[in-house]
Amino acid sequence: MSGMEPQPSRGASGTAPEHPDDWIREALACHEASLLRYAYSLTQDLETAQDVVQDTFLKLCEQPRETVAPFLVRWLFTVCRNRALDVLRKSRRTGELSDEDMNRQPATGPSPAEATELQDSSAWVARLLESLPRNQREVVRLKFQSQLSYQEIADVTRLSVTNVGFLLHTALKTLRQRLETVDQPRTMNSQSVGNPLAKAP
Length: 201
Hints:
- With 201 residues, the chain is mainly alpha-helical.
- It has 2 domains: 19-96, no CATH class; 106-190, Winged helix-like DNA-binding domain superfamily/Winged helix DNA-binding domain (Arc Repressor Mutant, subunit A).
- The protein contains 10 helices and no strands.
- Helix 1 (22-43) crosses helix 4, helix 4 runs parallel beside helix 9 and helix 8 packs across helix 10.
- The longest helix is centred in the C-terminal third of the chain and has 34 residues, at 161-194.
């Protein structure tokens, strides 16, 4: 018996005890991709987004698990958002824009020629989403890409749940209207091609 290797200690359940850093690794595996998409949607720069997410997880490493774990997703997205906005405020790309100005500023929309080339509906929806004001884009992404609840979105963005609902409703209504506007000419063209009477004088 004296020559046997020492066995790792096990808990009452018979499994090896959890390493203190395991919860950090699990959080990284579960949320890194969605945080990266979110950070990129705010910064519009992949390298900056990666730095923001790295800073977020570095800050997580400094937190006691018991104080963060109960609301981990909300904490991660809040820290990620705050860090991304700090970077934007220091960036020349935003100049002296206030938060309110940034919220109102839409991304550049596609030209008619670009719209014709965007035949894939998912690509077109993505471009339409970019034409929304920043605060509407943000809540749509948090809801449908990151699967956050209304309350979690409110906590992350520091908006009320009512405001979150209003922004989502307004954004989705605008997207539907713009999709219908795009679809109408295509429908009319296809009907004209398929109906010989449409060409008659």
